[in-house]
Amino acid sequence: MTKLVVFCFAVIGLIAVVNLDSFSNLPVNNARFDMDKAIAKHEAHQKELAELAKMREERENPPKVVEEEVVEGPLVVLDTPQLVSGDKLYGKCIVCHGKRGEGKKSQNAPKIGGQMAWYIEKQIVDMQNKVRINKVMDPYIKKLSAQDVKDLSAYIEKLPWKEK
Ligand code: HEC
Questions:
Q1: Which atom of ligand 1 is nearest to 132's Cα?
Q2: Higher model confidence: residue 115 or residue 26?
Q3: Higher pLDDT, 147 or 29
């Protein structure tokens, strides 16, 4: 029994000695621990993690597709005094030309929404001067000042072409 124990120790000792040799062959790393490098590495890793988290967040909660709202507000953004005035004056024209200037067949009134302001202005001025005869519109335009006509034209030009 004792012999066996001694033998085992001998074998273990031998293995240890052989392995010691391989330890001594390991390259010696004398490089000093670089704090700055470690911090930079850590930060890069954190950044990578944040990006991955963001990707996962996006995958799990895809942005909802906002359905296009049906614009029901003012047809024209009244951002100048001229457009405010034009909007007011246009109230009288709606019966025949429609809210969006889309025209009305029943009134023989043409589409005027989106038409160029200079053209609209010229037509109304011509009608006022009886160069262009338009009996039905006469009562509606006869009292309009030159400035009113300009305001109206600027407003009508901005009306959307498309019908509902
Ligand atoms: C009673 C209905 C009626 C009203 C109200 C009316 N219009 Fe007209 N408008 C017409 C008709 C009809 C015509 C087409 C006349 C023609 O054949 O020359 C017309 C033509 C026009 C034209 C010429 C369009 C083109 O392409 O040549 C313009 C511009 C116009 N109207 C602007 C106005 C404005 C601005 C108002 C409000 C101040 C107005 N109208 C109010 C009936 C109306």
A1: 18
A2: 115
A3: 147
> For the structural domain made of 81-158, what CATH number should be given?
1.10.760.10
Binding pocket residue ranges, ligand 1, CB within 6 Å: 92-93, 95-97, 107-110, 112, 120, 123-124, 134, 136-137, 140-141, 152
- H helices of 69-145, in order, are 81-90, 94-97, 117-128, 138-141
* Domain map (residue ranges) of the chain: 81-158
46 membership: H or E segment, kind and range: helix 35-60
* Residues 159 and 93 sit within 8 Å (Cβ to Cβ): no
Arithmetic mean of pLDDT, 68-74: 59
Structure tokens at 18: 């052989």
